[in-house]
Design brief:
Layout (H helix, E strand, L loop, with lengths): L4 E9 L4 H20 L2 E8 L8 E8 L1 H13 L10 H8 L2 E11 L6 H6 L6 E8 L5 H18 L3 E8 L6 E8 L4 H8 L7 H9 L3 E9 L4 H4 L15
Antiparallel strand pairs: 1-3, 1-4, 2-3, 2-8, 4-6, 5-7, 5-8, 6-7
Amino acid sequence: MNDKVYIHELIDIIGHNRARYMHHMTANWCPVAREERNQLCFGVWGTVGSTGRWPEVVNMWELDGWDGLVSNFSHELSHASLQDPSLAEWWAVAAELRRGGIDRIVVPEPWTEPIDALVASGVRGEVYAHELYACAPGRSRDVLAQLYDVARPVAESLGLTCVGAFNVAMVNDAECVAIWALPDWAAWPDYERAWEPGGALRPWAEWLAASAVTSTRALMVDAPLAPLRLGRQPEVGDRRPLDTI
C-alpha cells in the first residue's frame, strides 16, 4: 500500500539549459528538500523532444501523504514573498534556466511502489514512457483499473516495468498518469507495435477508444543524478559548478 502523494511537474527549459537545470534540481535542491521538508525525489527526466514538448524536464516529488504535502506548502508559502527565504539564491538561479511549467498533484495506485522500494528492487530504465490519459469526469479510476488488468501484463511481457500509475487530483477524476521503464531502446518499437492492429496491446487501445479516453505518450530519459539511475537519492557531495555542465 502506497500512502504517498506526489507533485508532478512539466518544466519548460530556456534554451540549452536543460542539463544545468537537471543538475540544479537534483544536486542543489534534493538534499535541501529531503532535510527540510521530508520530500524525496521520485524522478527527474528529460523529455525526448521528437516525442513531446522540448526542451522539457519532468520532475516528480514524493511526500508523506496529504499531511506531508500541506507541511511542504506551509514551509514554502508562509512568507510574504511566497518563497522560502533560505532558498532565494536557488530560486534566482532556477529562474535563469526555466520559464515555467505545469504542475499536478497525483495520488498513486495502491500497487505503485514508493521510490525507496523501486530503488531497492533495482528498477531501471534506459528510456521511459510517460503516458497521460484524459477521460470523461469520474472515469480515471476505471482507466487505472483497466491499465492494471489489461495493459500491465502485456507491457511486462515485453520487458517493461510500471514505475507508477497515478490518479490526478483536483480535476474531478478526469486524468491519470502512467510511467513505464523500458530496459533498453530496442524495447520501445516493440511496445509501439503492440498498440497497432493485431498487436498484443490492441484490446487496451480499443477499450480506450470505446471509452473516449485520449492517451498521449512521450519518451523520457533519466537525469544523471535521478534516483533510479543512481540507486539512491542525490546528495550534497554530487554538486558541481553549473558552468562546468
